[in-house]
């Protein structure tokens, strides 16, 4: 099943409306390409979340507060991928001191439903790549999963 860019925009607007109705803080954003003037519309969300120490592999002892809870800033972007005619989800996570979570930390936080996928094929489940219009930012991406 493929999706046109117009359909993606329509679904993104519906998603945004639903997000507003449940106070989930997704936003519609636009990025204007300085090279050709085209505009890309995408969904974005930024949220502080907390994770238990057992969820993370790294030892982050510099944080205040409860010893086993660590605040992590999470930023999500959903963009249309014209090559595959489907949405792509990018995300990035960092500690409050600005240090990015490692890919191993991200893999360790995956819901138990998907743990088997991570164990057998982790490089094709979540991977890291450059976010194409914010070149300075390297983000993680969920690899496209087709469900039929």
Automatic annotation (TrEMBL):
Domain of life from the UniProt record: Eukaryota
GO cellular component: cytosol
InterPro entries the record matches: Atg3/Atg10 (IPR007135)
One Pfam family cited in the UniProt record for this chain: Autophagy_act_C
Swiss-Prot/TrEMBL keywords: Autophagy, Transferase, Ubl conjugation pathway
GO molecular function: Atg12 conjugating enzyme activity
GO biological process, one term: autophagy of mitochondrion
Family in the record: Belongs to the ATG10 family.
Stated name of the protein: Ubiquitin-like-conjugating enzyme ATG10
Protein's organism: Cinara cedri
């Amino acid at each position: 099943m493929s999706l046109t860019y117009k359909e993606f925009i329509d679904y993104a607007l519906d998603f945004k409306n639903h997000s507003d109705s449940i106070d989930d803080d997704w936003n519609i954003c636009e990025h204007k390409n300085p090279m050709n003037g085209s505009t890309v519309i995408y969904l974005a969300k930024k949220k502080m979340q907390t994770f238990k120490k057992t969820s993370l592999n790294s030892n982050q002892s510099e944080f205040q507060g409860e010893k086993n809870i660590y605040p992590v800033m999470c930023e999500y972007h959903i963009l249309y991928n014209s090559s595959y005619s489907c949405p792509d989800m990018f995300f990035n996570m960092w500690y409050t001191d600005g240090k990015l979570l490692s890919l191993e930390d991200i893999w360790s936080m995956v819901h138990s439903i998907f743990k088997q996928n991570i164990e057998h094929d982790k490089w094709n489940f979540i991977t890291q790549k450059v976010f194409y219009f914010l070149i300075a930012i390297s983000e993680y991406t969920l690899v496209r999963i087709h469900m039929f």
